[in-house]
Amino acid sequence: MYAECLLPLELLQTGEWADVAEINGDPCWVNRMAELGLRAGSRLQVVQDGSPCMLNIEGCKLCLRGDACSRILVRPISSPHGN
After folding, report:
1. CA dihedral sign, ordered 47, 53, 25, 1
2. Helix (H) or strand (E) holding 33
3. What is 40-58 written as a DSSP string?
4. pLDDT of 50-70, one tens digit each?
5. Predicted model pTM
6. Other Cβ atoms within 10 Å of 68 Cβ, number
7. Is the pLDDT of residue 1 over 50?
8. CA 67 → CA 10, 53, 60, 78, distances in Å?
9. Fold for domain 7-77?
10. Domain residue spans in the chain?
11. CB atoms < 10 A from the CB of 55, how many?
């Protein structure tokens, strides 16, 4: 259903899963997100949408504020075990 659709992370709702496609922004910020586990290819679940947005990435929680969610493009998936 969503296979070719890239969306800003901010458009996902609580409980939805996605694969990260791109992270845009200052290289230092992009590298910091990678250090925290948020990088192209990682799978995440939105635990709480809005601002702040809380994500589950490989069992770890990450909270993002401000426009951070608009700079992360994701490919929504129907379940954590694949498309």
Report:
1. positive
2. helix 27-35
3. TT-EEEEEE-SSSEEEEET
4. 999 999 999 999 999 989 999
5. 0.87
6. 20
7. no
8. 9, 10, 21, 25
9. SH3 type barrels. (2.30.30)
10. 7-77
11. 25
